[in-house]
Design brief:
Two copies of one chain form a homodimer. Chain A is mainly alpha-helical. Helices cover about 70% and strands about 5% of the residues of chain A. The first copy, chain A, folds into three domains: about 150 residues, MgtE N-terminal domain-like (MgtE N-terminal fold, Alpha Horseshoe); about 120 residues, CBS-domain; about 170 residues, Tetracycline Repressor, domain 2. Chain A contains 22 helices and six strands. In chain A, the strands form two sheets. A four-stranded mixed beta sheet of chain A has the order 1-2-3-4. In chain A, strands 5-6 form a two-stranded antiparallel ribbon. In chain A, helix 1 packs antiparallel against helix 2 and helix 17 runs parallel beside helix 22. Chain A is flat and about 90 Å long. At the A-B interface, helix 1, helix 3, helix 12, helix 13 and helix 15 of A face helix 1, helix 3, helix 12, helix 13 and helix 15 of B.
């Protein structure tokens, strides 16, 4: 009866299921070996038995853990376990999957089963995944919903994806200012229900205008004879349904919130956002950004099929190939210079490479500033000036070192000086491009994670080759 | 009286303070203009007035917002505002700063003021920042603490940095199984205190062994005559003080928790970790990783001084310079081949560049898998095999395209074939290195964010140059 430790045995659970699947395949093969008349029934019985085995292992597990275990399987095994889940457990896990995994499982699940799973979801969870479900499945699920749930779902669907309207839950517990704490507690005992992740009740007036919020903490601390108005927080922080999910995420992070009310433009309480939805959003977004910077779309994970992966990476490689061909045209122009002094070919990649590296350091810093919303016109100018000076200093330091090394190696002082000059200039360009490209993409409303590093590498490669060879052509 | 919206006007607050500082400088200059005898007093009075102005703007703001506003200033202005803060408000903000900003402010703050600020911190907050404070300041603060707080601080300091022991708060509210809900509520009214972010009370027996947890939510829903034992959750998830903060963060994310008990190895309740500490930890870690991948240490932000920045980036640039010199030695070997056919110099960077790009895509995928703990021996093998096949396919596709383009451009079919072969081979190497390097670093207990991309680029550059030139030397 010692306290549980989290996640300790999820890999063990996955291994147990993997062993079961192995065993099941053997049994199914045996069943298939029966003579023709019995085969159909034997296989079916065996499959039913197998599904029950898997269900037994996963029964009662937290949906996030079920999702984790399934995500640790390769596609085929994952699908087999997924199909063994009861529709209600499958529904709970569906919300917890990474979007990639969810999309793939949905694609591979039969229409009939999908309708049963989707029907087991709450309207607000359904709104959150509705874009991932096929239109005909959603239509059938909508049919089967009660009047009220259907209206709720329609309302949520009306908000743009990634908005607070999609993230919010409509299930809120409210109280009135005039109630005494004793009454509130009595009401709660009678109702015997609070929505999940309720850390506070919302105080509204007769027209449902949000007046304040009453944390459970102050509720249990206050004496029963006091009134809600006395102990509530007035002017609570609130979101609008049209706010972006990113905006909500920042508020939750900054103020360490568990739930936040959502009000319409007349200040009426229409819903509530909870920290679990926000944490999932933050994780998925951070994840997408990291992949986007390497030129991958979020739709790929380590278990993606070869075909999906190859297709996912192709656009980026094509862009890379084109920019590389264009950048090396700067070399093509100077082929006669290289012919005259072939060591230039050996040294030029160094100039390009150190430029790319400094530029990427600058880009990483700008990304961080953007994530923390640190930029003002002042700080932008300040950063640009500082990055230029830093790269000038680094250029002089490392450019001299590289120049002296190259000059000594090839016993030619002029070569060293050309190399030093090219490095200094290229680092300066790298700093300017590294600051301006992500800031400009961000201002244009584009995602700076996509494109910044391609454009940067393109600039530092072309300029690295061009500056070095052009200076060599002039002075050697 | 409409509900507040979060963060709407923080930039406005920053602007207001910036204007104040401007105004203050003018006033101080005026004061300095007074004749010699009055000057000292006039300047001092003016400075006191200026500090009061700044305090007025920031009074009552959430510490996270104070930290945000300060972080949006350049170093000099930031220091001026920081010095104007009351020690108690400065203490609250100190916890919320990014570690970089905190370290720099601490360095620039006088010893006397630092002691006053640190003394205003709770013992568990003090434990969290103690590594950032100078030893003599900590010694003086320890002196001034009461017996109990000093013991608490000593205990926390005994745990390794980044452990649950450092993250946890010792302030926990406990109840007994045998108590009735009515009694619990009565006790809470009498005590009139619960630690911050209390979403649950912890149930312990007479020896302080953790028996369960009682959420405030079930507390307010249950009737007063029921007992704690009836409605508590048995076997609650619990952490150990020696668990890593990362382990705690995963548990909070996965189970959407607000607080978690910490028990020692005999199961006794010794503290509590809350979601706010965990969210800060996640943000700081994600941030550090992103910078580390670009070769920056976490100790830099967009306002770092030129000198700090240049020093911070130098090691990485030196490594880059060395690997670039070594990689280009593979070109040096083939200088006579290039002399014979100078277009090789133009084309070779393309082979290296596309290799680096594919490799980085693979690295990003492996990082994601590591972050989500998706790797098992099976999935490692699976991923390696898949990446090799994907890069073979992409190599054939884009290698042919590049080869045909180059062959046509230089009207030499053999050149196109050499280029194609070199790209296919280099992409295969990139995939293998991209999978194996981060996994190996991770297994060795090193941070894969540092070093993976240097090693990868080194491999794809050297091999890109070597394969292309060697094949050209053999077949052209």
């Amino acid at each position: 009866m010692s306290p549980q430790r989290p996640t300790a045995d999820l890999h063990a659970t996955a291994a147990e299921i993997a062993a079961l699947l192995e065993h099941h395949r053997a049994l199914e093969a045996l069943a298939r070996g029966q003579d023709r008349t019995q085969r159909g029934v034997a296989v079916q019985l065996q499959q039913r038995q197998n599904a029950a085995d898997v269900q037994r292992v996963l029964r009662g597990m937290h949906p996030a853990d079920v999702a984790f275990v399934l995500e640790s399987f390769e596609q085929d095994d994952r699908l087999q376990v997924w199909n063994a889940l009861e529709p209600s457990q499958a529904a709970e896990a569906l919300i917890e999957f990474e979007p990639t995994v969810r999309a793939r499982l949905v694609r591979e699940t039969g229409r009939h089963r999908l309708v049963r799973i989707a029907s087991a979801l709450d309207p607000d969870d359904l709104a959150w995944v509705s874009d991932d479900l096929p239109e005909d499945v959603m239509a059938e699920v909508r049919e089967s919903l009660g009047e009220i749930d259907r209206t709720l779902l329609q309302q949520a669907d009306a908000y743009p994806p990634q908005s607070v309207g999609r993230l919010m839950s409509l299930d809120v517990a409210t109280v009135r200012e005039s109630q005494s704490i004793g009454d509130v507690l009595q009401d709660l005992h009678t109702r015997a229900y609070l929505p999940e992740h309720s850390d506070r009740l919302f105080v509204v007036d007769t027209r449902n205008l949000l007046r304040g919020s009453l944390s459970l903490q102050s509720l249990v601390l206050a004496g029963p004879q006091r009134t809600v108005a006395e102990i509530m927080e007035g002017n609570p922080l609130a979101l609008r349904p049209e706010d972006t999910a990113a905006h909500a995420a920042r508020a939750f992070e900054r103020y360490d919130l568990v739930s936040m009310p959502v009000v319409n433009d007349r200040g009426k309480l229409i819903g509530r956002v909870t920290v679990d939805a926000v944490v999932d959003f933050i994780r998925v977004t951070a994840d997408k950004d990291a992949l986007a910077m390497a030129g991958l779309s979020g739709a790929e994970d380590i278990f993606s099929s070869v075909w999906d992966s190859a297709r996912n990476r192709s656009p980026w490689l094509l862009v890379n190939l084109i920019t590389a061909f264009v950048a090396t045209r700067f070399i093509g122009v100077f082929e006669t210079t290289i012919q005259g002094f072939v060591s230039l070919a050996t040294l030029m990649p160094i100039v390009a490479s150190i430029g790319g590296n400094t530029g990427n350091q600058t880009v990483a810093l700008v990304f961080r500033g953007l994530a923390f919303e640190q930029f003002t016109p002042d700080s932008r100018r300040h950063l640009l000036r500082k990055e230029l000076i830093v790269s000038l200093l680094n250029g002089i330091l490392w450019g001299s070192l590289a120049g002296i090394t190259a000059g000594l190696f090839y016993r030619r002082a002029a070569l060293g000086i050309v190399m030093m000059a090219a490095i200094i200039l290229n680092l300066t360009i790298a700093a300017a491009v590294g600051v301006l490209v992500p800031l400009t993409l961000h201002r244009m409303g584009r995602d700076p994670a996509q494109g910044s590093s391609v454009l940067l590498t393109f600039a530092t490669d072309s300029m690295g080759f061009f500056l070095f060879l052009c200076l060599a052509w002039l002075y050697l």
